[in-house]
Specification:
57% of the residues lie in helices and 17% in strands. By secondary structure, the chain is of the alpha+beta class. It has a five-stranded mixed beta sheet with strand order 1-2-3-5-4. Helix 1 (8-54) packs antiparallel against helix 2 (59-87) and helix 4 (128-148) runs antiparallel to helix 6 (192-200). The chain is elongated. The protein starts with 7 loop residues before the first helix and ends with a strand.
C-alpha cells in the first residue's frame, strides 16, 4: 500500500491557493455582473439626459423619454436587487429546508423566473459549516441558471435518505442542444462550486435534464 504524506506547510499552501482562487473568481464574477449589467443600464441615463436637453421644446418627446426612463430605472432596481441577493447571507438560523425556501424567495424573479421547491424525507442534522457551503452551492446554481441559461423555471428537489442529503437543481434554460458540451466544460472548470463540494467531501455532478441542465449534489451526513 502506498502512503502519501503532505507536510503542514504544503497543506497550508494548497488551502491558501484554493481560497485565493475562490476569492478571485467571486470578485471577477461580481465585477462582471456590475459592469455588464448595472453600469451599462446606468450609462443609458446619460443618453436620456442629453436627449432631454435637446427636446425641451417638444413636450411629446419629453414625455416619451420620461416613460422610457421610468421603465429603465425599474430595470436598474432589479439589477441592484439581483446583485445584493448574491451578497446576502444565506444562513438565518432556521431549519435547512426553511433556509432553502427563503433563499428561493429572495432569488426568484417575479414575471421572469420561477423557482419550484420539493422536499422528501425527514430533515436530518447537518454540521453548521457544511450547511452553509451547501446553501451557497444551491444559491450559485440558481444564479447560474438564471444568468447563463436564461431559465424561466428552476426546480429544487431535496431528499433526505438514511445518512445522505441529495439536492438537485434543474432548469429549463436555452441551448438544450448544447447541454453535453456545456456539461463537459463544467466538469473541467475549477470554480467555486467544485471547490465547495470538494471541501464538503460531496459529489457534484451535471446531467442533461428534461428541458435543460440538471445539477446533483450528494452529501454524506456527518455524525
Amino acid at each position: 500500500m502506498t502512503h502519501f504524506f503532505v507536510s503542514p506547510q504544503n497543506l497550508e499552501k494548497e488551502v491558501s491557493r484554493r481560497v485565493a482562487e475562490a476569492c478571485d473568481q467571486i470578485t471577477s464574477e461580481m465585477g462582471a455582473e456590475i459592469h455588464d449589467d448595472l453600469i451599462q443600464k446606468l450609462s443609458v441615463f446619460r443618453l436620456y439626459l442629453d436627449r432631454l436637453e435637446l427636446s425641451m421644446n417638444d413636450q411629446d418627446e419629453v414625455e416619451r423619454l420620461l416613460m422610457g426612463m421610468r421603465s429603465d430605472f425599474e430595470n436598474v432596481i432589479q439589477s441592484i436587487r439581483r446583485i445584493s441577493r448574491q451578497l446576502m447571507p444565506v444562513h438565518i438560523g432556521g431549519s435547512f429546508e426553511e433556509e432553502v425556501q427563503l433563499l428561493s424567495q429572495n432569488m426568484e424573479r417575479p414575471g421572469a423566473g420561477t423557482i419550484h421547491l420539493s422536499f422528501k424525507g425527514q430533515e436530518l442534522q447537518i454540521v453548521p459549516a457544511d450547511r452553509l457551503y451547501i446553501l451557497r452551492i444551491i444559491q450559485e446554481l440558481i444564479h447560474n441558471a438564471f444568468k447563463h441559461s436564461a431559465a424561466w423555471h428552476i426546480w429544487i428537489r431535496v431528499e433526505w435518505l438514511h445518512n445522505v442529503l441529495l439536492a438537485e437543481v434543474e432548469d429549463d434554460g436555452a441551448g438544450f442542444h448544447k447541454i453535453s458540451e456545456f456539461i463537459e466544460r463544467l466538469r473541467k472548470k475549477n470554480n467555486t462550486l467544485k471547490m465547495r463540494s470538494q471541501t464538503l467531501g460531496a459529489s457534484l455532478t451535471y446531467h442533461q435534464g428534461q428541458k435543460g441542465l440538471l445539477a446533483k449534489l450528494e452529501y454524506k451526513l456527518k455524525q
